[in-house]
Design a protein that fits this description.
4 helices, 44% strand, 35% helix, 160 residues
């Protein structure tokens, strides 16, 4: 068994090196937004894009396999059910102005981060139309995001 003896000078230099490394990491990470900050900014920018009628910007936040699930309550003539909308369908509606938003507000957002996946929960209110019919609503929602090649993309939205 070999014993390693370090001089006080070597220990001091090691300590200073570790301290400098921690300070350097702290400085560089302070200049970079955290994943939580990025996700919150993405949520807000993504919600604003259809209000601005910017289908391309809206699509840039969405994974190709994006799916929106909306709970449709029962009416006197229909049973309650889930409806599903794909990225392609929703983006085309915004692009063709068949789905138009005059306002979308998000509040009480919380990010639940787990490595390269995150779920953002919050409350929303929106004012708009879909194929000429009022789709003004408010409630709670969840968005699931995945980090791919350094970018956060939303893969699913649920509006219960």
């Amino acid at each position: 068994m070999h014993t390693i003896h370090l001089s006080r000078r070597a220990i001091g230099m090691l300590f200073v090196s570790v301290l400098l490394a921690e300070m350097t990491c702290g400085v560089s990470s302070a200049n970079q937004p955290s994943d939580v900050e990025l996700l919150l900014a993405n949520e807000k920018a993504w919600a604003k894009a259809p209000v601005d009628g910017d289908a391309d910007l809206m699509a840039s936040f969405m994974a190709d396999e994006y799916l929106e699930l909306v709970w449709e309550p029962a009416t006197p003539t229909t049973a309650a059910r889930w409806t599903a909308t794909t990225k392609e369908t929703w983006v085309q509606r915004v692009r063709r102005h068949t789905e138009v938003y005059s306002a979308v507000e998000l509040k009480n957002l919380t990010v639940h981060l787990q490595g390269s996946m995150a779920v953002v929960t919050g409350e929303y209110s929106q004012v708009g139309t879909n194929e000429g019919k009022d789709n003004t609503s408010s409630g709670i929602y969840t968005n699931t995001w995945v980090k791919r090649k350094g970018r956060w993309l939303v893969i699913q939205s649920v509006f219960p």
